[in-house]
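stuck on whats below:

***
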Amino acid sequence: ELIKFYGKSQAGSKGEGEEKINQDSILVLTGLFNLKFNIFAVLDGHGDTGHLISNYCKVAIEQFFKNKENYLTGNNFIMRLTEDIVYNRLILNNYKIIKKCIESIDLELSKLKFDTQFSGTTCVIVFMIKNHLICANVGDSRAVLFYTKGKKSTYAYKNLSNDHKPGNSKEKERIEESGGYVVHFKNDEGEEEETLRVWTKDSKVPGLAISRSLGDSTIHKFGVSSEPEITEATINNDSKVLIMGSDGLWDMLTQDDICSYLRKYFESSVESIVICSIFHFESIISSFISSSSLF
């Protein structure tokens, strides 16, 4: 049962105190169609118009999954949806409805008036239907389910999503087969940064640090994909917290770090959903526990 949910985001820094535009977007939909059906999403934009793209995709995802007609099949005009009908529709034909939503949004991005050639967004979505979790991921934002095991004060975790990085063997193979290059960026002194990036044939642009995204139409011609990777998990009495975040969270904290925070802050009886996309996790947990109405 969903007890509480919390979302927070803030802009990073360019250095020397200069604040960047906050390009994160968070979507929270609870009790859709008066059912035990909830949708959560975290999107992390990049590039000059990444904030516009992440917000556009958030709104489009909301509109798509709030539209009852998208859950109907053929001539089966259902007047009243149930949790089982929604779940079966989402998983039908290898999650066709979810893939259709992502694909249609990515196609629509090319028609917008702002730049989507060199800007884009990640997108991780979790659908919660009764005790089912369905995770659809594009990019390196991440969803992790935390649960208790054995002694109730011991926390463990299950990654619902996999980060899509250019260095992953299958991702790299697809990119290189499409004519893209996966190499390290070199600064003016010839020093290589640690992160592998995707480059076009001229090796100048756009140097994307993820292998799947929405938008980024220029680099998509060279193997970067918008196809979501979809996984499932089941909630049981040991399931406690779902945490979703952009790389701003996961670059600063490991899952083991978060397990330590959970042991500190949560009683074993708490069942909850947390959504966050920044790295100030300890303050989020404190606010989460002390607040009775978070949205």
